[in-house]
Design brief:
The complex is a heterodimer.
Chain A lengths: L1 H20 L1 H6 L1 H27 L4 E8 L7 E7 L1 H24 L5 H22 L4 H19 L6 H32 L4 H9 L5 H18 L8 H4 L5 H10 L4 H8 L1 H6 L1 H22 L5 H22 L2 H29 L15 H15 L5 H16 L2 H26 L14 H16 L4 H12 L2 H4 L9 H20 L6 H7 L1 H8 L4 H47 L6 H21 L1
Antiparallel strand pairs in A: 1-2
Helix pairs in contact in A: 1-3, 1-5, 3-4, 3-5, 4-5, 4-11, 4-16, 4-20, 5-6, 6-7, 7-9, 9-12, 11-16, 12-15, 14-15, 14-19, 15-16, 15-18, 15-19, 16-17, 16-18, 16-20, 17-19, 17-20, 18-23, 19-23
Chain B lengths: L1 H4 L1 H16 L7 H24 L7 E9 L4 E7 L1 H21 L7 H20 L3 H10 L1 H11 L4 H30 L4 H9 L3 H18 L8 H8 L2 H26 L1 H6 L1 H21 L3 H20 L4 H32 L10 H4 L1 H14 L6 H16 L1 H25 L16 H19 L2 H18 L5 H8 L10
Antiparallel strand pairs in B: 1-2
Helix pairs in contact in B: 2-3, 2-5, 3-4, 3-5, 4-5, 4-12, 4-16, 4-21, 5-6, 5-7, 6-8, 7-8, 8-9, 8-10, 8-11, 10-12, 11-15, 12-15, 12-16, 14-15, 14-20, 15-16, 15-19, 15-20, 16-18, 16-19, 16-21, 16-22, 18-20, 18-21, 19-20, 19-21
The chains are: A mainly alpha, B mainly alpha.
C-alpha cells in the first residue's frame, strides 16, 4: 500500500525534477506538459488504487523516515500517513489536478513553449507539495509542505510576472499567508515543546492522557488556526485571495479554489482531537468561519469581475467549512470541502473558458453567450446550482450537513450568518449567470466555444458536481476510522426536519431574485444600487480591510522602517564615528608636543630629569 | 616528518606558500596567474574535502603539537573537529568559486589580488584550525590585512573609508581579545586550549566575567551582533564581489566560531548566566537586521543587513545550549555562507552588467536572464528559509532550541522569518519582475563560467535542505562537546529542559 502512496508523490516530483533540471525539456513546451500530465495520471491512478485498497482494509498505515538524526535527543522524522482522511483528500487533489492540467493545454496554448514548460514545472511542484501535505503524518512536515504550496502559489500567481498587478498580487499573497504562517510555526513549536513530538498520533495521545493541556495547548492550537486563517483566506487575512486571481485561471481553479486554500480546513479537520480539547479556540473557529462566509458573500454582490466573484465565493464557502470544523461537524466540513472542490473548480474552468473566448473578465462586457457557448453555459449552470445548494446537486447535501452541524451548537449569530449566506450565494451566482449568458446586451468580439481539450475535462467535474453528494455516506464510512462517527449518529434529534428545505428554499429565493433583477428586469437593480450607494461603496471597497492593511504597511511599517534607517545611520553609526573623531582630536592635541624643535626637546628632557629626581628623593 | 605528514597542515600552508610563489611569476602574465590560482584553489578544495572524509566521529583530528615559543608556552598546535572541518571546506569552496569568478572580472593589480586572495584563504583556515590561543590570535589578526587590501584596492567609490572602518572597528574589538588572551596565557603558562580551559574555569567569577566580556566583544563585533554592526554594510557595499562573498560567507563565522570554541568552553558558568542576554541580542539582530534590510535601496546593503538577521538566528540557537539549538546554529553558519555567498555573487553579476547596485536600476530581469532569475529565486528562497532548501533546516532547529529555553524569544524569532519574506521578495519583485519604465539595453544571461560558480552552491542548497543527515552527523560531536562543558553549570530544572523536552514515546518507529 505504501508504495502506491510513494508513487503518488514521487511521480509529480520526478516530473518537476526533470523539467527543472533539463532546460531542453522545458523548452519543448508540449513535451514538458506531456510529462507533467503523465505524472499526474500516475498519481491519480495510485490515489484511486489506494482508495479501493483502503475501503477493503480500513487500517491506517504509516511510514517514517529520519530527517534529522541526533545522538542524544529524539530525531526529527518525516513520514507518510495513509488513513481515510488522507486518501479522500488525495483523490480530490489528484482528480482536480488532472482535469486542470489537461484543460491547461487548451487554455495556455498561446504561451511560448518555454513559458508553457515553466508553467507545467510549477504545476508538478505544486502537486508534489500538496500531496506531501495531505499524506503528512506530523505537524512539522505539514508546515514544510504548507510553505511549499505557498511558494508554488506565489510562483503561479506571478506567472505573468511582467504585469505589475500580477507581481504585486503574488507578493501580497505570499506576505499575507506568511503572516498567518508565523502563527502556524509558533503553534507547531509550542505543541512540540509541550508534548515532545510533532506526530499527530503522539499529540493526540498526549491530549488524551492529559500530558498536553492548559494554556500551552490553547495557544498552540490557536497558532495553528491563525495559519489556517491565512491559507484558507479567513477574515481578516482573506485579502490576498481576490487579488490572487491575477494568475492564470486554471491555477485559480486548482490552487485558489479546490486544493491549497482548503488546506487550512484540512488541517483543522486533521487536528480535530486538539480542537475538541480547546473549546475556546473551536468557538472562534466557528465564529470567524461563519462571519467570513457572510462577509465574503456580501462583497461578491457588487463585483463585476467574474473570477473575483468566484474568489469571494470561495472565501465564503471556506468560511462554511471552517464553521463546520469549529462546530465539531468534521465529517460535514470535509464533505463540503470534497464537493466544493469539484463544483468550484468547474465554475473556475467555465469562467476560464469565457475569458479565453472573450478576453475580458468583466461580466457586464459579456452577454447573451448561451447560444455561442452552450457547453460552457451548461457547466456554469451546473456549478452555480451546486454552489447555491439546490437539490439534488452535490452542494445541497454537503451544505445541509453543515447547517445541521452548526444548528446543533445553538450559536444564534453563526446560524444567522450561514443561513443568510445561502440566499446571498444563490443571488450573486445567478446574477453572474444571467448577465453573462442571457441579458439583452450582445457580447463584443467573436464569442466561440472553447476547444474539446478544455470542454472535455470539465465534463468530468460537472458529473462529479452533480453526483458527488451521493458519496456522502461512503465518505462518512471512509472517515469514520479517523474522525469517529459520534456526531453523525446520536444527536440529530433536536434538529428540525425542515432544515434542509429551509436551506434550499433560501437558495431558490436567491435565484429567483437574481432572475427578477437581471433577467426579467421587473426589479430595477440600478435604482437599488443608487439608493443604497454608500452601502455599495463599502462593499466595493471590500469593507476597507485592504485599505487598512495598506495604511498599516505604508504609514506604520514603512515609517517605522525609515525611522530605524535614520537611527542606524546617525545614532548607532554616529556613536562609532564620534568615538573615532574623538580619538583623532586627542591625537591631534597630543601631537603638538612633538614640535621637532631642539629647545622643546631639551625642556622636556630637563623637566623629565627633575621629575625623576623628585621621585627619587621622595622614596 | 610529523609536520610534513599532517594533511591539515598542508591545507593551511598550501595557499600561503602559493601566494609567495606567485611573486616569482612576472606581473604581466595575468592569464597564467589566473590558471595557476585556479589550480591551487581547486587542489586546496579537494585537500580539504579529504579532511572531511578521513574525519573521526569524536574529538579532534589531524592534531599537531609542536613547540613554538617555549618561554611563553605558545605552541604550534592545530587540529579540527566537525565544526572546523565544515567551515574549512566552506572556505576553500568559496575561495575556489571566487577564483573562477574573479578571473575575468579583476582588471587592475591582478597579481596582487591573487596574492591577497590566497593569503586570506590560508589565514582563514588557520583561524579554524588553531588549537592554541596565541596561534589563533595571530591568524585572527593577520587575516585582517588581505581583507583590508581587497576592500581598499579593488573596492568601489568609498573603498578607503570602508576599508579603514572595517580594519579599525575589528582591531578595536581585538584589543579586548588580546588582553584576555595574554591574561589567560600568562596566568596558565601555556596557550594550549585544553590546558587553558581548566585554568579559566577556576578563576574568580568576576575575573571570568570580565574575560568573557572581553572575548565576546571582539567576537560580537565580528559576527556582528547589534549594535556593533555598522561596519558591515559599509564594508560590503564597497568590497569587490569576492570580498563580499568571503566576508559574509566566512569572516562573520569567525565570530560565532570564536564564541563556541573559546568564550563558551572557557567560561561556561558566565556563559550560562548571560545566555538570555545573548539570545535576546540574537533576536534583536534578527528583527533589526530584517527591518533595516527593508529600508535599503542598494542590494548589497540589503544583503548585508540580512546577514545581521541570519547571524542573529545562529546566536539565538547557540546560546540556548540545547542540542537542537546548537546543531541548528552550527548548521546555519554553513547555510548562511552558502546562501549569502550566492546572493553576493548574483549582485556582482548584475553589477557587472549595468554598473549599478540599486534595485530601481533593474526590472524585468527574469525576461532577459531567465536562468539567472531562476537561480536568484532559489537562492533568495533559501535565504528566507523556505522548507526543502538549506536555510530552513538551520533556522528551524535554532528556533526549536530557543523555544525550549524561552517561548517569548522563540516566538519573536519566528516573527523574524516573515520579515525575511518581506524584504527578499520585495527585492525579487523589483529586480526580476515588473517591466522597466524606460527601455534599457538588454542584459545577457549567465555565461558558462558564471553558471559554474552557482552550480556547487545550488547543489548544497538542495542537499542540505532535503538530506541534512550527513551534515548533522558531522556536527554531532562538537554539539555534544559544548553540551558536556555546559551541563554542570545549568540549574537542574534547566538541565532537563535543555537535554530533552518531556518525552512521550513516539508512536511510530
Amino acid at each position: 500500500m505504501m508504495q502506491w502512496a510513494l508513487l503518488a508523490i514521487g511521480a509529480p516530483f520526478t516530473a518537476f525534477a526533470l523539467i527543472g533540471a533539463f532546460p531542453w525539456i522545458r523548452r519543448t513546451g508540449k513535451g514538458a506538459a506531456g510529462l507533467s500530465i503523465a505524472a499526474i495520471s500516475l498519481s491519480l491512478v495510485s490515489a484511486l488504487f489506494l482508495l479501493t485498497r483502503y475501503l477493503q482494509h480500513p487500517e491506517p498505515q504509516t511510514l517514517s523516515y529520519v530527517f534529522a538524526p541526533f545522538s542524544t535527543v529524539s530525531p526529527i522524522t518525516f513520514g507518510i500517513l495513509v488513513d481515510g482522511l488522507a486518501v479522500a483528500m488525495l483523490v480530490v487533489v489528484t482528480v482536480v489536478a488532472w482535469v486542470v492540467q489537461v484543460y491547461s493545454l487548451g487554455y495556455m496554448s498561446e504561451e511560448s513553449p518555454s513559458s508553457l514548460g515553466r508553467y507545467y514545472a510549477y504545476h508538478s511542484l505544486f502537486v508534489t507539495s500538496m500531496i506531501g501535505l495531505v499524506l503528512s503524518h506530523n505537524l512539522l512536515q505539514t508546515y514544510v509542505f504548507w510553505e511549499l504550496v505557498g511558494a508554488c502559489s506565489y510562483l503561479l500567481i506571478g506567472f505573468w510576472f511582467y504585469k505589475p498587478e500580477a507581481a504585486r498580487a503574488a507578493l501580497k499573497a505570499f506576505w499575507v499567508t506568511r503572516l498567518g504562517d508565523v502563527g502556524f510555526a509558533i503553534g507547531v513549536v509550542l505543541l512540540w515543546a509541550a508534548a515532545g513530538t510533532f506526530t499527530f498520533e503522539g499529540l493526540f495521545s498526549a491530549v488524551e492522557h492529559g500530558t498536553l493541556g492548559g494554556q500551552l495547548l490553547t495557544l498552540g492550537v490557536l497558532g495553528l488556526f491563525v495559519g489556517a486563517m491565512g491559507k484558507s483566506a479567513q477574515f481578516p487575512l482573506h485579502i490576498w485571495l481576490p487579488d490572487a486571481m491575477e494568475g492564470p485561471t486554471p491555477v485559480s481553479a486548482l490552487i485558489h479554489a479546490a486544493t491549497m486554500v482548503a488546506a487550512g480546513v484540512f488541517l483543522m479537520i486533521r487536528i480535530h482531537p486538539l480542537l475538541a480539547a480547546t473549546p475556546e479556540v473551536a468557538f472562534w473557529v466557528l465564529q470567524i468561519g461563519a462571519f467570513t462566509a457572510f462577509l465574503a458573500a456580501t462583497m461578491a454582490l457588487v463585483e463585476r469581475d467574474v473570477k473575483r466573484i468566484l474568489a469571494f465565493s470561495t472565501i465564503s464557502q471556506l468560511g462554511y467549512m471552517m464553521a463546520a470544523a469549529g462546530a465539531g461537524a468534521h465529517v460535514a466540513a470535509f464533505f463540503h470541502l470534497f464537493t466544493h472542490a469539484f463544483f468550484k473548480a468547474l465554475l473556475f474552468l467555465a469562467a476560464g473558458s469565457l475569458i479565453h473566448a472573450m478576453h475580458t473578465n468583466d461580466i457586464f462586457r459579456m452577454g447573451n453567450l448561451w447560444k455561442h457557448m452552450r457547453w460552457t453555459g451548461l457547466y456554469f449552470l451546473v456549478g452555480g446550482l451546486a454552489l447555491s445548494g439546490v437539490p439534488p446537486t452535490a452542494g445541497f447535501f454537503s451544505k445541509d450537513e453543515i447547517l445541521v452541524g452548526v444548528w446543533q451548537t445553538g450559536e444564534p449569530l453563526a446560524i444567522f450568518f450561514l443561513f443568510a449566506t445561502v440566499f446571498l450565494t444563490a443571488f450573486y451566482m445567478f446574477r453572474a449567470f444571467f448577465v453573462v449568458f442571457f441579458g439583452d446586451r450582445e457580447a463584443e468580439g467573436h464569442p466561440h466555444e472553447s476547444p474539446g481539450v478544455m470542454v472535455g475535462p470539465m465534463g468530468i467535474l460537472a458529473i462529479l458536481a452533480l453526483v458527488a453528494g451521493f458519496f456522502g455516506h461512503g465518505l462518512e464510512g471512509l472517515l469514520s476510522h479517523t474522525l469517529g462517527v459520534s456526531e453523525a449518529a446520536g444527536e440529530t434529534a433536536h434538529v428540525p426536519g425542515s432544515l434542509p428545505w429551509i436551506g434550499s428554499l433560501l437558495g431558490l429565493a436567491g435565484i429567483a431574485l437574481a432572475y427578477l433583477g437581471y433577467q426579467a428586469r421587473t426589479l430595477d437593480t440600478r435604482a437599488v444600487y443608487t439608493r443604497f450607494h454608500p452601502v455599495a461603496t463599502v462593499l466595493e471597497r471590500r469593507y476597507f480591510v485592504d485599505d487598512l492593511f495598506l495604511a498599516l504597511y505604508r504609514y506604520v511599517y514603512n515609517l517605522l522602517s525609515d525611522f530605524l534607517g535614520w537611527f542606524d545611520r546617525y545614532v548607532v553609526d554616529g556613536v562609532v564615528n564620534f568615538l573615532t573623531w574623538g580619538t583623532w582630536q586627542v591625537a591631534r592635541a597630543v601631537r603638538t608636543v612633538q614640535s621637532g624643535q631642539v629647545q622643546d626637546t631639551l625642556y622636556a628632557v630637563v623637566l623629565g630629569f627633575l621629575f625623576l629626581a623628585y621621585l627619587a628623593m621622595r622614596f | 616528518m610529523v609536520f610534513w605528514g599532517n594533511l591539515l597542515n598542508w591545507v593551511i600552508w598550501v595557499p600561503i606558500v602559493a601566494a609567495f610563489v606567485l611573486l616569482l611569476i612576472p606581473e604581466q602574465r595575468t592569464r597564467f596567474q589566473g590558471w595557476a590560482v585556479l589550480a591551487v584553489t581547486l587542489v586546496e578544495f579537494f585537500l580539504s574535502t579529504a579532511l572531511l572524509r578521513a574525519f573521526p566521529r569524536a574529538g579532534y583530528a589531524f592534531t599537531l603539537d609542536l613547540s613554538w615559543i617555549p618561554p611563553l608556552g605558545a605552541g604550534y598546535r592545530i587540529g579540527v573537529d566537525g565544526l572546523s572541518v565544515l567551515l574549512i571546506v566552506l572556505t576553500t569552496l568559496l575561495t575556489f568559486l571566487g577564483a573562477v569568478y574573479s578571473r575575468e572580472v579583476i582588471r587592475k593589480h591582478v597579481r596582487t589580488y591573487w596574492i591577497a586572495l590566497l593569503l586570506l584563504e590560508g589565514l582563514l583556515i588557520g583561524v579554524f584550525a588553531a588549537r592554541d590561543l596565541l596561534l589563533f590570535f595571530l591568524f585572527w589578526e593577520a587575516m585582517l590585512l588581505p581583507m583590508f587590501l581587497l576592500i581598499g584596492i579593488w573596492g568601489h567609490e568609498r573603498r578607503l573609508y570602508a576599508a579603514f572602518k572595517f580594519f579599525l572597528y575589528t582591531m578595536a574589538g581585538s584589543v579586548f581579545l588580546l588582553a584576555g588572551v595574554l591574561y589567560l596565557g600568562l596566568k596558565a603558562g601555556t596557550f594550549d586550549l585544553d590546558a587553558l580551559r581548566g585554568v579559566a574555569q577556576n578563576l574568580p567569577l568576576h575575573v571570568q566575567t570580565l574575560l568573557f566580556l572581553g572575548f565576546m566583544i571582539a567576537f560580537a563585533i565580528k559576527v556582528p551582533v547589534v549594535p556593533f554592526h555598522t561596519w558591515l554594510p559599509d564594508a560590503h557595499v564597497e568590497a569587490p564581489t569576492v570580498g563580499s562573498v568571503l566576508l559574509a560567507g566566512v569572516l562573520l563565522k569567525m565570530g560565532t566560531y570564536g564564541m563556541l570554541r573559546f568564550a563558551i568552553p572557557f567560561f561556561p558558568s558566565v556563559a550560562v548566566r548571560q545566555a538570555s542576554l545573548w539570545m535576546a541580542l540574537g533576536v534583536a539582530g534578527i528583527l533589526y537586521g530584517a527591518w533595516m534590510s527593508w529600508v535599503q535601496k542598494d542590494m548589497k546593503r540589503l544583503i548585508a543587513y540580512s546577514s545581521v538577521a541570519h547571524m542573529g538566528f545562529i546566536l539565538l540557537g547557540m546560546f540556548s545550549f540545547t542540542v537542537y539549538g546548537l546543531s541548528g546554529g552550527m548548521l546555519q553558519m554553513l547555510n548562511h555562507g552558502i546562501s549569502t555567498g550566492a546572493l553576493f555573487f548574483s549582485v556582482g553579476m548584475l553589477y557587472e552588467r549595468r554598473h549599478s547596485r540599486l534595485m530601481e536600476a533593474f526590472g524585468g530581469v527574469a525576461r532577459e536572464m531567465p536562468v539567472f532569475a531562476t537561480i536568484l529565486g532559489i537562492v533568495a528562497m533559501s535565504s528566507l528559509g523556505l522548507p526543502g532548501l538549506n536555510g530552513f533546516v538551520g533556522e528551524f532547529l535554532s528556533l526549536l532550541g530557543a523555544f525550549q529555553r524561552s517561548h517569548l524569544l522563540g516566538a519573536l524569532g519566528v516573527a523574524g522569518v516573515i520579515f525575511a519574506a518581506v524584504y527578499l521578495l520585495h527585492m525579487l519583485r523589483q529586480v526580476l519582475f515588473l517591466t522597466p519604465h524606460q527601455p534599457r539595453e538588454p542584459l545577457m544571461d549567465l555565461n558558462p563560467r558564471e553558471f559554474f560558480v552557482f552550480l556547487p552552491l545550488l547543489i548544497l542548497i538542495f542537499w542540505i535542505g532535503v538530506y541534512p543527515r550527513p551534515f548533522l552527523r558531522v556536527l554531532d560531536a562538537p554539539v555534544a562537546e559544548i553540551q558536556r562543558v555546559i551541563r554542570p553549570h545549568l540549574s537542574t530544572s534547566l538541565q532537563t529542559r535543555v537535554q530533552e523536552p518531556q518525552h512521550t514515546p513516539e508512536v511510530y518507529p
